[in-house]
Amino acid sequence: MSSIGKRARRSVQSLLARGAVAGISRLPLPVARHVGRRLGALGTIVSPTSRRRTLEHLELSLGETRSRAELRSIARRILPTLGAQLCESLVFARWGGERTFQTLEIEGLEELRATIAEGRRRGRGIIGVSAHYGHWELIAALISNVCKGDALCVVRRYEVEGYQSVLAGIRSRLGVRMRYQEDSLVPVLRHLKRGGFLGLLPDQDFRNLYDGIFVDFLGRPAFTTTTPAQLALRTGASVCAATLHREGDRLIVRGSALVDPETFRADADPVRALTEWWSRELENRIRAHPEQWVWLHRRWRTTPDRLEYRSHRRREREEKRRRPPSGLVS
Q1: Counting CB atoms within 10 angstroms of each CB, which of 72, 83, 264, 315 has the fewest?
Q2: For residue 133, what is the DSSP state?
Q3: Which residues, listed in sequence order, are joined to residue 128 by a DSSP beta bridge?
Q4: Rounded CA gap, 188 and 202, in Å?
């Protein structure tokens, strides 16, 4: 597709996204949830590529413990679950953070408050590792609310302007302070060193990642960012895994105990050991409620061969930028 065609397609997508947001955000919460589930079910039908990829990932990761019928049932529930959560988030954004958390009943909230309070008493900051699992937009807003604004979340910037503006709007109205993955880490380091909370979603495959490592995730080697571990070891910030999932009509927040990065110093590779720790924490939660993770994402896309090819192309581009213009060469 030509660049003009891509721009036109994205403009249409942006207009549709804004129109959908305007309509859905004004619905009563139960109705918005129902609409989201129906839209997700429609997406499952009209997107055979996503459906096939989802089932393939489920079979490779859970095939030894689940029957094919169970895996198909899980696959059918994923997009309706995501759709319901997105539409809920649009309503929550219209309400704002204060009304949202006055209205919702969330189990495990007091335990999370206690964990955050303990980390703040240590005075070295907290790194909260979460995943694209359950209600990940809401867990970010919840932690921001508990921290009374002293939380910072590193997020991805989407190429489609309409999607980007929708998600940025949801987050800002719910009180989430954001920094983007490509932004400088200096403010992040300062934030941790003065005892702030940093939220990260490191469970996906990042195309621009070159300095990650391969760790086992859901039974397969997955190329994984080491940023949470490196930040913790550099700043002394405690690490916890925090997620928010649904069981029927119940919302349940689950936070791990705080982990001191110094406990990993004795390992031969502290960065790997800490990365494996949070990967296992997230994996266990995904296995418990697999329909609430984004299995359609190409989590295992990066292989050692692909990584080497990307690194080679990156070196070529850097060398090309360093070369002087051909007209200046004597």
Answers
A1: 315
A2: B
A3: 199, 240
A4: 15
Query: What three-state secondary structure class fits 197?
Result: strand
pTM: 0.89
Cβ(189)–Cβ(200) under 8 Å? no
Domain ranges in the chain are: 3-313
Torsion of CA 155, 159, 162, 164, to 10 degrees: 10
Cβ contact 102:208 at 8 Å: no
With residue 245 as reference, give the H or E element that holds it: strand 238-247
pLDDT tens for each residue of 41-63: 999 898 899 999 999 999 999 99
Q: Give yes or no for a contact between 203 and 295, defined as CB atoms under 8 angstroms apart.
A: no
Range 3-313 has CATH code 2.30.170: no
Could you give the CA distance from residue 104 to residue 126 in angstroms, rounded to a whole number?
Answer: 25
Residue 301: phi and psi, rounded to 5, are -65, -45
Contact 246, 102 (CB under 8 A): no
Q: Which residue, chain included where needed, has tokens 């192309």? A: 313
DSSP-assigned states of every residue in 184-247: -SHHHHHHHHTT-EEEE---S--TT--S-EEEEETTEEEEE--HHHHHHHHH--EEEEEEEEEE
pLDDT digits (tens, 9 = 90+) for 146-171: 999 899 999 988 887 777 888 899 99
Distance, C-alpha 285 to centroid of its chain: 14
Query: For residue 197, what are the β-bridge partners?
Result: 126, 151
pLDDT digits (tens, 9 = 90+) for 217-249: 999 999 999 999 999 999 999 999 999 999 988
